[in-house]
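Provenance and format

Records in this collection were gathered into a single text stream. Each protein contributes a sequence line and a token line. The two records reproduced below are adjacent in the stream.
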Amino acid sequence: MNSSPDISTKLLDWYDVHARELPWRVSPKDLALGILPDPYRVWMSEIMLQQTTVATVKDYFSKFTAKWPNIAALSSASEDEVLRAWAGLGYYSRARNLKKCADMVVTSHDGHFPADVQALKALPGIGDYTAAAIASIAFDIPAAVMDGNVERVFSRLFTIETPLPAAKPIIKAKVAETLSQTRPGDFAQATMDLGATICTPKKPACMHCPVRENCKALEKSDPELFPYKLAKKEKPKRVGAAFVATSPSGDILLEQRPSSGLLASMTQVPTTGWNSRQDGDTNVHAAPFNAKWKNCGTIRHVFTHFELELTVWHAENVRSDGQNYWWATRENISEEALPTVMKKVISCAIPELFQKQ
């Protein structure tokens, strides 16, 4: 049997018992007591969870909501403050859009997220998936929520052989057909939890799955074959150099990246002009100023569209008063808006620095 109501009922019954405890989530038991989800916390979690694991997001979510407990507080923060708090979470356009969205909700919606999918999509940083997730989870509006977990669960349930991403509209139609009209938020979270804990990419725990009797992939094929995906293109590889300069007292020389492009407005040590389309110089002669530079080796970092290898140079006892630079103490370096790639660079030159924090 593969009927949609049957799948929905089984998923919700399973979720009522096995729902994950997450800091932004209202449990089924609390919902039954009349405790409603906070749209601000739902939105914050969904933005952070884009391209980022639940385990990583938990600490950042707690830090953000402690510092800015509501949309008005976040709107009052500067973009630089938000970027510094976001440092290390990656995909920094999310942080800039977080601030823009907070401002728009405060100025255009009287500080309240709109309970409408189309109105949500008009806000900065909110696309189809995030709008559906907020509408469904925060406002119990029946909307087909699609993430990697949902795609995997439904491609297996219905043996959808069209490869992703072409399969997305087919899967979305199946989700819309199956979702609970009375508990759409719980249904979305139940499906995501199932994909995260049981219907996993490798070695799914099919014997513990509440909808195993409905799963066509388990009946006719190998669930691990789904979803079908086109072969990924190999990412281009870029190279460059980064220069870690320390003062006589051990402070680290930093600068701000340009206000547009990759890692816009984030903090870095001086580097050569690499980006996703071109290499930068790796030679010590490309250093921003003369010093006794020592080669510390290389670091590698993977961005969405390319891989980067940076040769790291380190110079000690540097004195520089350049207008575009500033010095950060070792004690306060964690407060800077350093992306992960720059933490790797600095750690290559000063291995013990971030280990102490």
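Adjacent record:
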Amino acid sequence: QPLPKKLQGGYDCFFTDPPYTLQGMALFLSRGISGLQKQKGLSIFLSFAHKSPDFTLNMQREFVLAGLTVREVLSHFNEYEAAQMIGNKGQMIVLTTTEMTDPTIKHPFLESLYTGEETPSKREYQCKRCKRSIQVGAQAKIVTIEQLKKRGCPRCKHQSFELLSRRRAQD
């Protein structure tokens, strides 16, 4: 849903860590931009996975469409536990508003946001404490690693896991 009216236009910066898809990034940036004052030179802090050059080019196209410039890219800025798919590290992209800055998505968003929605997968994680294996993903009781961390290991309730394997849901 669009940002509530009372939150629009009042802020001078924002931080976001969106899903690592172009749609997720564009939506989170759009909602954040809606909250910013209409002023050039404001900072946006975008935490995002390191991606291929082609994906990065598409990211930069999204920035231009939103009227944003890239001020700085801090590689390996964030470290994530149980995020082997992205090398456990993310980057911080510092963006700056211009006179052209405007949200690219202004209406309710109904498309897929997450990589798992675009390419359903099955993953096997192992609890770092008791070594129990847990299935996560399409057709599993637990669909995402975030849900697994929130619930904890079924055996010992520990909330730290290691990815053992990943395959497409159709396999």
